[in-house]
Amino acid sequence: MTEQGYPPRQPDQSDRSGRSRTSREPGRTGWQMLDAFDAGAEPESDLPPWAVPGGIEPLRPARRPPRRPVPEPVAEPTPAEEPARDRPGVRRRLAGRTRAAAARRRRSRRRLVYWGGAAIAVVVIIGLVIVLNQPPVVRSQFVTTLQKGELSSVPDACHVVGAATLGEYLPGTRKSIQPFNYRGESECTYTVDARPVFRVLNVTMQAYQPAGYIPVGNGNATANAAYTYGRQRRQFIKPAKNTPQPPATITPLTGLGQEAFSALQVFHVGTITDWVTVVARYHNVLVTASLEAQASGGFGPVSIGELRAGALAVARQMMTAVQAIPPVS
Question: Given this model, what pLDDT does residue 72 score?
Answer without folding.
Answer: 61
